[in-house]
Amino acid sequence: MWQRLLATVLGDGVPRSDERGQAQFDIVGPARRREEDLGATGGHTRVAHDARRDDDARAIAYGRHAVSAPGGGDWVEQLMRSFRDQLVGGLYEGVYALDGAPLRRVMDAQAEACVHAFVALPDIPSDYDFEAFLERMKTSGPSRVRIDRVSDDELLWTELHDGECVCPHVRQNVVRLDPKLCLCGETWVRLLVERHARRRAEVELVESVATGACNCIYRIRLREPS
Fold first, then answer.
1. Distance between CA atoms of 120 and 155, rounded to whole angstroms?
2. Rounded-to-integer distance, Cα 130 and Cα 183, Å
3. Domain over 103-222 is classified CATH 3.30.1380.20
4. How far apart are CA 212 and CA 103, in angstroms?
5. How many CA atoms lie within 13 A of 31 on its CB side?
6. Averaged pLDDT of the chain
7. 192 phi and psi angles, rounded to 5 deg
8. pLDDT above 70 as % of the chain
9. All structural domains of the chain with their residue ranges
10. At 216, which helix (H) or strand (E)?
11. Is the whole model's pTM more than 0.90, yes or no?
12. How far apart, in whole angstroms, are the C-alpha atoms of residue 175 and residue 21?
């Protein structure tokens, strides 16, 4: 029953029976992974585990609740994750077709959700003052952050990425990297800065991995307290 439900949800299911008469399904179509990632052991179809490359990114991208079949079976979680990832990837292709205010609204919403998840991971208290926050971000961000002061109200925020985007969706190969995704990065930095500077801020992308640079650099201008 469980396998039939999954097959209905995930796409074309090809039922077959093994020697013991147990129904099995090979998921075909868009949800199918690379052939080498599929195998059969003990009459049960399994999906190979993805490498856990970044625990924090997993928590943000996938949440903390596993999906399991009656009697257990981590392959169900992997199967549902693959399906969900393909839906998100398709959604982002539509997002990348947007421009102007609609694109900004989507990226702002994503950045806000990401900030709420991020500050909980390294436990960055909201009562940190701005200097304490900047010091903490040197070691607590998705990658190392270098802060260069231009003036009292302007600084350069450099995320040392070594040519790799740290967005969980990109790192997990869920979405393709596009410069439009950097709008999320701008808002992510702005929301964090405003949270601890307790002032309005303007954040401008200088360069990023998506634009061909090795690191992501943002120019931050703090405004007068309201």
1. 25
2. 23
3. yes
4. 21
5. 23
6. 77
7. -65, -45
8. 67
9. 2-89, 103-222
10. strand 216-222
11. no
12. 39
